Amino acid sequence: MTHYFLAEPPASPAKTGVLLINLGTPAAPTAAAVKPYLREFLSDQRVVELPRWLWQTVLRGIILPFRSGKSAHGYQKIWQSEGSPLYVYTERSALALEQHLRKAMADAPLVAFAMTYGAPSVADTIARLKQQGVSRLLVLPLYPQYAASAGGAALDKVWQVLLQQRNQMSVRSISRYYDHPGYIQALAGKIEQHWQQHGRGDKLMLSFHGIPQAQHNAGDPYPQECRQTAVLLAQQLKLAESDYIVAFQSQFGKAKWIGPSTQDLLVSLPKNGVKKLDVVCPGFAADCLETLEEIALQGREDFYAAGGTQYQYIPCLNDDSAWIEALAALVQTHLHGWG
Ligand SMILES: C=CC1=C(C)c2cc3[nH]c(cc4nc(cc5[nH]c(cc1n2)c(C)c5CCC(=O)O)C(CCC(=O)O)=C4C)c(C)c3C=C
Ligand SMILES: [Fe+2]
Ligand SMILES: [Fe+2]
């Protein structure tokens, strides 16, 4: 195999950079913009682990023509004046983190954000940071719980860039933060604040994005990390086991996914006496299609249709100051003693 290593300018004074990575999102809420985004995302073999020839035929022939329009319709319901919520909150979090670190540290790092799929790409963002003199890079995918299909896929993009570098940067990565006290406290604070303002339901649902059961069987630690987040959160909120329930949402395709399914529970809970439900999505750092459309809008409709009488969606941490403070502490811990 021939390698082509990037041409590099001479080294400038060493700087440190922090790179936040999120999933990516279409550039516009239209089928034309959703299609290339979904093609790139769903072509990643970390996400769909089927033989390439088989999956590409199904993806291009069946999934993309149908799913792009349906997804675009969902995005239209949640799109903000500044763009896709996932993009808007990720960008704001990076800006807020940089400002916070500047106040907290003498030699504060540059902070940038990138998307695993779509723009700004990990490759372009690392190239820009390198031009700005960054030779030490701390990478943090914005997924509290590690799944190969999310955090793993984000970090793959970083390693792919490193493989091409002539003068390789030093890299540290944070592959997960599901049990970080600052994350747990920020989440608990958000939920408590919501309860103080709006009252409390009969049960709190902690809804995490799902993954295929086969990926977990092959060794993906994701569901255990979600459950551990739930236990720590319950301890912080002093909840009994009967006060909350862990569920997994956004099932895609016909294969078995890890459960219990959020969708199924939204229908069965009212029939089992839970008429007032609070839902929070601790696995999502930023509100997005899967939280705002699938949970806050569609979930509410399904819960009421099944006999529920009160449904409260508690937003993600987004760029809340308590979370940015915790994120800054997490970053500072991992920068400690570096250069
Ligand atoms: C095989 C399919 C998928 C796996 C595995 C998967 C894992 C996974 N995803 C997230 C976070 C997000 N996913 C989002 C959207 C989304 N996810 C899938 C499929 C899989 N995800 C699809 C097809 C879509 C697109 C939207 C749709 O058509 O329904 C998003 C939101 C993006 C946005 O623009 O708002 C996030 C965030 C995690 C954390 C994860 C594994 C744990
Ligand atoms: Fe997803
Ligand atoms: Fe979805």
From TrEMBL:
Q: Does the keyword Metal-binding apply?
A: yes
**Pathway named in the protein's UniProt entry:** Porphyrin-containing compound metabolism; protoheme biosynthesis; protoheme from protoporphyrin-IX: step 1/1
Q: Which domain of life is it from?
A: Bacteria
Compartments it resides in: Cytoplasm
Q: What is its EC number?
A: 4.98.1.1
Mention any Pfam family matching this sequence.
Ferrochelatase
For the ligand (Fe(2+)), the binding residues are 209, 290
| InterPro entries linked to this entry | Ferrochelatase (IPR001015), Ferrochelatase_AS (IPR019772), Ferrochelatase_C (IPR033644), Ferrochelatase_N (IPR033659)
Question: GO cellular component terms?
Answer: cytoplasm
Q: For this UniProt entry, which residues form the secretion signal?
A: none
Among the GO molecular function terms of this UniProt record, one is: ferrochelatase activity
Q: Write out the catalysed reaction.
A: heme b + 2 H(+) = protoporphyrin IX + Fe(2+); Fe-coproporphyrin III + 2 H(+) = coproporphyrin III + Fe(2+)
Q: Looking at its record, which EC class is this enzyme?
A: lyase
- Which keywords does the record carry? Cytoplasm, Heme biosynthesis, Iron, Lyase, Metal-binding, Porphyrin biosynthesis
Can you supply a Gene Ontology BP term from the record?
Answer: heme biosynthetic process
Q: Which family does it belong to?
A: Belongs to the ferrochelatase family.
Q: What does this protein do?
A: Catalyzes the ferrous insertion into protoporphyrin IX.
For this entry, the protein name equals Ferrochelatase
In its UniProt entry, the species of origin is given as Paralysiella testudinis
